[in-house]
Amino acid sequence: MSDGRRQLKGQVIPLATAVSDAKYCFQGQGVDYPEREGLRLLCAGRERCQPGFHVERTDFACVLIEFVVEGKGKLRAQGQIYDLFPGIIFSYRMNTPHDLWAEPTDPMTKFFAAYQLSRKRSAVPKLGIVPGTIRWTRDLAAVQMLFEELIREGQLAGELNQEITARYLELILLKAGEAVLPKDGQIAGGADAYQRTMACIESDFASLASLGDLRGRVGLDPNYICRLFRRFGQETPNQCITRHKVNRAAELLLTQNKSIAEVAQAVGYEDAYYFSRVFKKRFGYSPREFRDVAKQNT
Fold first, then answer.
1. Which domain holds residue 224?
2. pLDDT band at 37 (very low <50, low <70, confident <90, very high)
């Protein structure tokens, strides 16, 4: 079992040892390291946990955010045990005791960032995620990209390099803040169903006209779908379908020489007048006005 710590230039950095295919960047170790509004990046990395991965941490002097992209694991913190799986993002408070271990048959791969907050950054919730919480995001690819860029930039040198890495860290914290706060530490089943429903909407929105259509595609009761969206989303299923339809309609209006009726049909509206009302409600312009304004600015 690893104690999850390594000493580096006088500071305890919470790096595990039972990992492979690791990649790290280090910043903020020197006294001259500039803070960005009280946010001080120490290090970041990607680690592929080995089957025997298990760390216990109690006394590291920083805040740590971790993000699981593959595999499974467990987290014990503040008297609860949480399942870890792709999309889970979690943050520890400084000196908060916790255990973290990987599933032996499907060990996780995770990203992390260690940072400090000075007194200048007293309003921690503005950063998105409060240290000591665990969340789940379906926007896995975007968060993974931010971590990868953070590590890449952190390995470079330049006048603005530390400012750039601090901006990436801020974005990671904000993305974590918009993720879902699970109830009772167990969200795997519902998360899978929500992910499947969202994937169906994203691929088939043009042919979805109602919750009944969605039920036929994903095999879930409409009432359950609505509960999933209340739990994991920020809009209703119908609002989500409509958003995808009108966003695609806007793309077609700008890039193709289709009539308004043809655009309406392409995104699943048989009634062009109803489509125009829905479009204007979202964009503030009718489809025709939207296209005309765009042409005036080209």
1. 188-296
2. low
